[in-house]
């Protein structure tokens, strides 16, 4: 093989090897950093985990508090937020996929939804503050839930539209040929065929809003006491983590790490379930 | 495909009762989905209007100079966005500068060098990392990276004791700084960009790559001359999406940037971004104060910046097909 031993070929091969080495180093560095993050999370969060977290509310430093009110507050806000976002997101996604393929309104809606999808979440917080907090002069759980809904809606729209557009057209045509009106074709055929994918989208939106902190800063504000009232400030896991992690007290920082571990495990578990839902379908 | 599945308008068929009922249901369903689409439009409109209305007092007081002023003084109520715009742009660009080469390397490694059996599990891990809440990255930066950097600057300062300017620079460097924020942002957007790059590089037609291999090209030459040029537009779009994410990130930055509202040209000193300032100073801004308005004006500024980046990303990423 005279060609491969020529100096030019040797240099090109060497260069290829060199770049491969660099890329390996890049991947190793990236993995090392990400491993460091997970390791910190587990090594600092795991020792602080205990049943107390779930049974005791947040208390001042030195009083052996837990995170119960924060967990419940998060569940309430995320639950209501998803309850608001799901119908709007699914219906708007359906509109884009089934009714608006070539319409101008559809194109504009799609563009606007994409903007909302990538808009900084803190701006959503400011918006809901102006809309609900500044007008009523009180921070509230419902304002937090609305902020989370605004973040979830574009995610649900995007996945719903993408999943519906994967449903084969002949399936719809077969139903239409039997005389089914379009709304029946959509709800009974397209929604059912795209069901698993749409559920995945909902789960991804759920995982995303469960970890959101910034939009809650000025809407539900946080609350160190027990409160399940929708009209009053309410605690949430991410906000409590933020407040405790930046406090100077070691026991509160420990609680923050425990909360951080809880929320990461929760978010990752939802993501894994979401991938399994899709995987089973295919 | 529209025409083939659209049922003919029911009004034109002989007026049988079930058909009329069905037409009503169709009209209702259609109205509902269109209404949901319109709600989304109204949502964005409302966000823009609310931010604009809220920031009006600020622009009345400081005019367009708000964007260029490097003074943020809560005591005398003089507000300018310069420091925060600077901090936002510098941290985000720093994050891109670090994350894009790393992501390219990772993506090349994952698509070309890694054995095929490992690709899927590692790809899954990357997409999971992209889902970790940003506050976790902030805590890691604050509790692990910042002390590490702080110690590093001190150690370096000791080495440069003989050179006063370098020493001064290093001894005044802080563990929490604009640089630290850029690092944390880089780590945060790395999985995001890598995942998109993997998808883009993986989408290069195999025939295209094989024909260049057939000409005797090395692996790297195939990636550089075929895969990257083939996916360049999409890759730039992915970078812009990462940039958009970095520009608006709040929690990961607030922990590690130091939240200083005084101007300093050194990126190793504490600073602030638009998002971190809003998060950090909001508690001190009461209903109806000028400070609240200034924070809303910062929000509007961030919206304009990220809208520009998004529009750019959208124009570059290949249009979605239907």
Would you write up a description of this structure?
The complex is a heterodimer of chains A (282) and B (322). With 282 residues, chain A is mostly helical. Chain A is built from 13 helices and no strands. The mean pLDDT of chain A is 91. Chain B has 322 residues and is mainly α. In chain B, 72% of the residues lie in helices and 1% in strands. Chain B has 13 helices and 2 strands. Chain B has helices spanning 2-5, 17-62, 82-113, 116-129, 134-159, 164-171, 178-202, 206-214, 219-230, 232-248, 251-254, 274-281, 290-316; strands spanning 72-73, 78-79. Chain B has a two-stranded antiparallel ribbon. In chain B, a hairpin with a 4-residue loop joins strand 1 and strand 2 (78-79). The longest helix of chain B has 46 residues, at 17-62. Classes of the chains: A mainly alpha (282), B mainly alpha (322). The interface between A and B is large, with 101 and 91 residues.
Provide a quick synopsis of the model.
The complex is a heterodimer of chains A (282) and B (322). Chain A is mainly α and 282 residues long. Chain A has helices spanning 2-5, 7-45, 52-55, 68-99, 104-118, 121-136, 141-165, 169-177, 182-193, 195-210, 214-217, 237-245, 250-281.
Report the span from N to C terminus of chain A.
47 Å
- How many E-type strands of chain B? 2
The N- and C-terminal alpha carbons of chain B lie at a distance of: 10 Å
Which pair of protein chains has the largest interface, and what are the residue counts? A-B, 101 and 91 residues
Helix content of chain A: over 70%
Number of helices of chain B: 13
Poorly predicted ranges of chain A: none
Strand neighbour order, sheet with most strands of chain B:
1-2
């Amino acid at each position: 093989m005279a060609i491969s031993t020529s100096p030019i070929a040797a240099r090109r091969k060497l260069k290829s090897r060199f770049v491969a080495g660099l890329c390996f180093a890049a991947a190793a560095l990236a993995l090392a950093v990400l491993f460091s993050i997970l390791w910190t999370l587990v090594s600092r969060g795991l020792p602080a985990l205990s049943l107390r977290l779930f049974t005791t509310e947040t208390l001042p430093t030195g009083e052996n508090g837990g995170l119960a009110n924060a967990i419940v507050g998060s569940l309430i806000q995320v639950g209501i937020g998803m309850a608001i976002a799901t119908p709007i997101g699914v219906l708007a996604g359906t509109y884009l996929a089934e009714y608006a393929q070539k319409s101008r309104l559809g194109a504009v809606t799609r563009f606007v939804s994409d903007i909302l999808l990538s808009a900084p979440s803190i701006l959503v917080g400011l918006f809901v503050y102006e809309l609900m907090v500044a007008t009523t002069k009180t921070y509230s759980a419902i304002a937090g839930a609305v902020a989370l809904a605004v973040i979830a809606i574009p995610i649900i729209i995007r996945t719903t539209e993408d999943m519906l557009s994967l449903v084969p057209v002949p399936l719809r045509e077969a139903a239409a040929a039997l005389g089914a009106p379009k709304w029946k074709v959509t709800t009974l055929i397209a929604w059912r065929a795209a069901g698993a994918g749409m559920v995945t989208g909902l789960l991804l939106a759920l995982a995303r809003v469960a970890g959101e902190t910034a939009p809650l800063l000025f809407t539900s504000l946080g609350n160190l006491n027990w409160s399940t009232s929708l009209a009053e400030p309410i605690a949430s896991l991410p906000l409590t983590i933020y407040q405790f992690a930046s406090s100077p007290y070691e026991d509160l920082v420990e609680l923050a790490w425990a909360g951080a571990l809880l929320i990461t495990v929760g978010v990752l578990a939802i993501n894994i379930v979401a991938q399994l839902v899709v995987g089973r379908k295919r | 495909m529209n025409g083939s599945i659209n049922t003919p308008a029911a009004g034109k068929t002989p007026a049988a009762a079930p058909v009329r009922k069905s037409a009503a249901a169709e009209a209702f369903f259609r109205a509902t989905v269109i209404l949901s689409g319109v709600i989304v439009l109204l949502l964005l409109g409302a966000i823009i209007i609310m931010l604009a209305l809220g920031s009006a007092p600020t622009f009345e007081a400081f005019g367009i100079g708000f964007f260029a002023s490097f003074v943020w003084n809560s005591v005398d109520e003089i507000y300018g966005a310069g420091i925060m715009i600077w901090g936002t742009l510098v941290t985000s660009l720093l994050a891109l500068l670090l994350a894009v080469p790393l992501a390219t390397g990772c993506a090349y490694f994952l698509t070309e060098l890694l054995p095929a059996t490992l690709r899927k599990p590692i790809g899954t891990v990357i997409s999971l990392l992209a889902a970790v809440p940003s506050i976790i990255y902030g805590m890691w930066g604050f509790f692990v990276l910042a002390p590490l950097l702080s110690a590093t600057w001190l150690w370096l300062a000791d080495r440069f004791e003989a050179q006063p300017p370098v020493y001064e620079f290093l001894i005044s460097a802080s563990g929490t700084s604009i640089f630290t924020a850029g690092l944390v942002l880089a780590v945060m957007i790395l999985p995001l960009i890598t995942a998109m790059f993997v998808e883009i590089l993986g989408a290069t037609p195999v025939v295209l790559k094989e024909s260049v291999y057939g000409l005797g090209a090395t692996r790297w030459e195939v990636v550089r001359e075929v895969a990257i040029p083939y996916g360049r537009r999409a890759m730039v779009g992915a970078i812009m999406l990462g940039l958009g994410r970095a520009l608006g990130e709040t929690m990961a930055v607030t922990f590690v940037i130091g939240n200083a509202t005084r101007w300093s040209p050194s990126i190793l000193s504490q600073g602030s971004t638009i998002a971190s300032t809003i998060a950090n100073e909001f508690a001190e801004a009461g209903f109806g104060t000028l400070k609240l308005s200034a924070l809303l004006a910062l929000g509007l500024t961030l919206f304009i910046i990220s809208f520009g980046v998004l529009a750019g990303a959208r124009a570059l990423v290949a249009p979605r097909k239907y």
